[in-house]
Design a protein that fits this description.
It is a single chain. The chain is mostly helical and 101 residues long. It is 66% helix and 4% strand. It has three helices and two strands. A two-stranded antiparallel sheet has the order 1-2. A hairpin with a 5-residue loop joins strand 1 and strand 2 (10-11).
Length: 101
Amino acid sequence: MSKMDKNGQICYGVRMNVSLTPEFEELIRRKLASGMYKNAAEVVREGLRLLAEEDEWKAEVRRKIFQGMKQLRAGQVVDGEQAVDEVVKDLRGRRRKAKGA
């Protein structure tokens, strides 16, 4: 949520002071030296963006696991070996079609 300053202007960023380990400080220095980032804030924002992306991915995996467990309890299962055999058969058929085309 955006905040406003004393003049009623929207402030998009909030300043925070954080303590970093020497290893993280060095990582930021290396990233800056690579020329990919203009300042330390950009490095930190990219790291946080990736963390948020990973959190979303983990939540999606958890949802899929929950859905799979529901299907398993409902008896909606497929034999693993049979499923793999069908995928391999399908891939071989696609390869044959591609070679023949």
